Amino acid sequence: MASGGRKAVVIGTGIGGAGCAALLSEKGFEVTVLERNSYSGGKAASFEKDGFTYDTGVHAVGSGELGPLGEINRIVGGDLKWAQIQGNRIALGNRVARYPLDYGSDESIYGILDGVGVLPENRDDCFLCFKDLATMKPEAEMEALETVPLKEYVDKFTDDPMFHQMVNATCGMLIVVTYFTGSTSEFIYCFAGMAEKANLSYPRGGMGAMARAYLDALERMGGVVEYSRPVEGIIVEGGRAVGVEACGRVEADVVVSNMGLQPTVRMVSDHLPADYLEWAISLRSSYGAVSVKYALDAEVVPYPMTLWMPDINDQESLEKYVGIMYPVPSIPDPDLAPEGCQLVLAGAVLSPDPKKKDLNNAVLDRIEATMSMLHPGIDDHVIWKLRTDVAYTANISGRDLGEVIGLSQDVKQIGKNRPEPRLPVPGLYIVGADAGGRGIGTEMAAESALNVSEMIAEDLA
Ligand SMILES: Cc1cc2nc3c(=O)[nH]c(=O)nc-3n(C[C@H](O)[C@H](O)[C@H](O)COP(=O)(O)OP(=O)(O)OC[C@H]3O[C@@H](n4cnc5c(N)ncnc54)[C@H](O)[C@@H]3O)c2cc1C
User: Fold this and answer.
1) Which of 8, 45, 257, 439 is the most exposed place for a label (fewest CB within 10 A)?
2) Which of 11, 34, 35, 43 to mutate for ligand 1's pocket (most ligand atoms within 8 Å of CB)?
3) Ligand 1: distance of its center to the CA of 375 in Å?
4) Distance between CA atoms of residues 36 and 10, nearest Å
């Protein structure tokens, strides 16, 4: 759809902002992107240190090029490349199961259930539940499951403790809330979507390569990206958003914010109905995460991705260790570490509140204890180690909280209760993980970019 040279200003270069900017440019908009950081990518950025390329978070991409991130790349002519992550594992204490990419097949499900040790008498019920969760449902059925907590749904099939622990941990990994509040339909959308596409992937060059590919494509189409240029205000005139203040006025026909819903509504609070503002500010974020990034001088961890949880029957393990996800990005993409070396990212979930420093440090200590127990000798191979807390995430994304995803995908904030990307101020939209998409973290932000760019093109046609 041609846009007749309309101007768009996009605030932020997270996946949502970078993707939407490139898509709008492809639709003919004149696009200017303003980013407060000196680099792109937001929560999905990558940095270099001593020949290692590491990510802000602990990362993998649900469906790689078969999902929305790949779709944006194709539409805008980006140069993003992918590597599949094969040979994944899930472990409850010392019971370990392979987690094949097509984990929705009957053979894979039985392999996983036997590996993690569900009770023999519960095996068939657990199978039915796993199969059900790994199968996409018709839209009406998904809608009916939006407000059903995942635990309640699983309870209908089985009370097997291992199975419950596995589903809760998987919910924490995919939508970063517990299964007590996580929406069943949102979990199925993520879990079944991944099983069907069977293409868990990692972007070559690190997670930051995704936003960079979109922004490079944008610049090739004539768009402008300005770094270290924080937006201080959104200009509203005659009841419409007409640009932003960012050490000077930048005018536009449409303002697209990737700052998150709450920071955005705070900037235009005088122009919003009081009840809308109150509702928007009351929305909850997903949990946060801390991570330990290991730059190693040897290939210590032989598995590309593991989700490990302490055995719920082992009190000592529960006290000393913590459930972690630890991808080894230099296995799918060896260019991320010098030859013979290895990059390991180990992360755990906790409150997104950056003020809880002691909690952050305690969980970080447990991650290190867990990695040393699972991979004895790892500490002898450390070139450097970086501990990142939720304050680090909050600082990178420019938000008050260091949440992993954005607004949480819990039963109260999904479907008709999810914010609309069109704000009550005409000409102002939000894009990114907070609105306009579904799915896992970066893929939800990318789906939002696809949907919001279409919406804007239609609104301004
Ligand atoms: C530890 C961790 C692990 C994760 N693991 C995964 C994973 O394995 N798989 C997955 O898919 N997702 C994962 N995620 C989630 C995923 O990274 C995020 O959900 C996604 O990247 C959010 O994208 P976004 O577009 O909403 O914006 P953000 O990433 O929040 O970016 C917002 C951008 O806006 C900019 N900005 C903010 N305010 C201003 C301003 N005033 N002026 C200008 N610019 C501004 C920020 O600097 C930033 O660049 C993880 C996240 C974390 C923190």
Assistant:
1) 45
2) 43
3) 30
4) 12
At residue 296, φ and ψ (nearest 5 deg) are: -115, 150
Gap between the terminal Cα atoms of the chain = 8
Q: How many angstroms separate the Cα of 375 from the Cα of each of 315, 344, 358?
A: 21, 12, 26
Q: CB-hemisphere CA count at 13 Å for 371?
A: 29
Pocket lining: 432 vs ligand 1, CB cutoff 6 Å:
yes
Give the Cα-Cα-Cα angle 397, 290, 19 (nearest 5 degrees). 35
* Cα atoms in the 13 Å half-sphere on the side-chain side of 83: 22
Q: What is the three-class DSSP state of 225?
A: strand
State if pTM tops 0.90. yes
What pLDDT, on the 0 to 100 scale, is given for residue 1? Answer: 44
Ligand 1 neighbourhood includes 176 CB (under 6 angstroms)? no
d(CA 358, CA 407): 24
Is the alpha carbon torsion for 137, 141, 146, 152 positive or negative? negative
| Other Cβ atoms closer than 10 A to 269 | 12
Which residue blocks in 134-260 are alpha helix, DSSP H? 139-144, 150-155, 161-174, 184-197, 208-220
Give 429's strand partners: 256, 422
Question: Cα of 58 to ligand 1 centre, how many Å?
Answer: 12
- Output the CA 434–ligand 1 centroid distance in Å: 10
Buried b (16+ CB within 10 A) or exposed e, 46-60: beeeeebbbbbbbbb
Report, as ranges of residue numbers, the positions in the chain whose pLDDT lies below 50.
1-2
Q: Which atom number of ligand 1 is nearest to the Cα of residue 17?
A: 25
Burial of 270 (0-12, 13-18, 19+ CB in 10 A): exposed
Does the C-beta of 259 come closer than 6 Å to ligand 1? yes
Residue 163 CA to ligand 1 center (angstroms) comes to 31
Q: What is the pLDDT of residue 5?
A: 80
Would you say the CB of residue 15 lies under 6 angstroms from ligand 1? yes
Convert 348-372 into a string of H (helix), E (strand) and C (coil): EEECCCCCCHHHHHHHHHHHHHHHH
220 alpha carbon – ligand 1 mean position (Å): 24
Give the residue carrying structure tokens 């984990």.
103
What is d(CA 8, CA 253) in angstroms, rounded to the nearest whole number?
Answer: 6
Cα 332 to its chain centre, rounded Å, is: 19
Q: What is the pLDDT of residue 461?
A: 87
